[in-house]
Specification:
It contains twelve helices and twelve strands. By secondary structure, the protein is an alpha/beta fold. The protein has an eight-stranded mixed beta sheet, with helices on both faces. Strand 9 and strand 10 form a beta hairpin.
Length: about 325
């Protein structure tokens, strides 16, 4: 399968299942008259490509724009700039029923499994609900059978289907969220921090489940997380975000194994190693200073106020996300 860095192939099967070009989301923050509203660029000029059956990880610290981007990709937030294509179709040009027809093939698994489930419905009703809405013409028995089939695929049974969300563990609740996302034919699932609220052992079970379902169903994932170890375990490609922009993009083995951007280097260094001797011997690079005000970001490179490599050129122009010095990944840094 092609990565975001490889030349595009030809033919219908080579069309990316999801493609974002210069995607942006700006919020207007009102102020008392006569002051003009403040503008906050939550996501700025983000371009991503997701191949069929692949997983793209999006990582970054809190406030970098990961969740805003994921909600734009699933259609919950309209972008204020840029273009989003689903299976080759520009969704900004689609309206009404045609827009809903395309976007219902893009589903989401939320961070908090309990708050994402309706406490008044049984598990069986929750999983069947997408079929009740989009495939109401199907006989009820067939919809029920499909709901039970996907529940079995995620490791739950008829007894779980009769229960309510509060009667399930956190891991089981997230399995319900995954089943609901995949009960209908789905091309893309946006996973927004899907395991951050779970115990470590349960995290591994959910990641293995997502990987098995991907191999069986051919679905593509956008996996959003702040945990590099989790993303490294499932994603083939990784995009690193800082203050609404992608600062490094490439194959997971390159981005995590040989990071080029100073911010990515600091993220990789922040992850502990299980080897205590190596942990004591290593000298991790630590970020200093606070995250800049997103309403009034620094000129040029937004990371320069916390970067040990910053020079005068960093304040004068924002670096482009391009391959530099023969590196396989793309980096937005003048001196990477």
């Amino acid at each position: 399968m092609p990565s975001p860095l490889e030349p595009a192939a030809t033919g219908p099967a080579a069309v990316p299942v999801l493609q974002a070009r210069d995607l942006g989301r700006t919020y207007r923050i009102p102020r008392p008259w006569p002051s003009a509203p403040l503008l906050l660029d939550a996501v700025n000029h983000v371009s991503l490509t997701l191949a069929r059956g692949a997983t793209l990880g999006i990582v970054g610290e809190s406030g970098c724009g990961k969740s805003t981007l994921s909600r734009m990709l699933v259609g919950l937030l309209p972008p204020t700039s840029g273009q989003l294509r689903i299976d080759g179709q520009d969704i900004s040009r689609l309206k009404g029923p045609r827009w809903r027809e395309v976007m219902r093939e893009v589903q989401m698994v939320f961070q908090s499994p309990y708050t994402a489930l309706n406490p008044r419905l049984t598990i069986g009703e929750i999983v069947r609900e997408p079929l009740d809405i989009h495939d109401a013409a199907l006989p009820r028995a067939e919809r029920q059978d499909r709901a039970m089939a996907i529940l079995e695929k995620v490791g739950l049974n008829a007894d779980h289907a009769r229960r309510y969300p509060h009667a399930l563990s956190g891991g089981q609740q997230q399995r319900v969220g995954i089943a609901r996302a995949l009960v209908r034919p789905t091309k893309v699932v946006i996973c927004d921090e899907p395991v951050s609220a779970l115990d470590v052992s349960v995290q591994a079970q959910v990641i293995n489940l997502l990987r098995d379902l991907q191999a069986e169903l051919g679905v593509s994932y956008v996996f959003v997380s702040h945990d590099l170890s989790v993303v490294a375990n499932i994603a083939r490609d990784i995009a690193v975000m800082y203050m609404g922009r992608v600062v490094e993009l490439g194959a997971a083995r390159d981005v995590l194994g040989a990071p080029r951007h100073p911010y990515t280097q600091a993220l990789v260094d922040s992850a502990n190693t299980p080897d205590q001797r190596r942990e004591r011997e290593r000298s991790p690079r630590v970020l200093t200073g606070e995250l800049p005000n997103p309403i009034n970001p620094p000129s040029g490179c937004r990371f320069r106020t916390r970067c040990w490599m910053a020079r005068e050129a960093c304040a004068q122009s924002a670096p482009e996300l391009v391959a530099r010095s023969g590196s396989p990944q793309r980096v937005a840094c003048h001196f990477a």
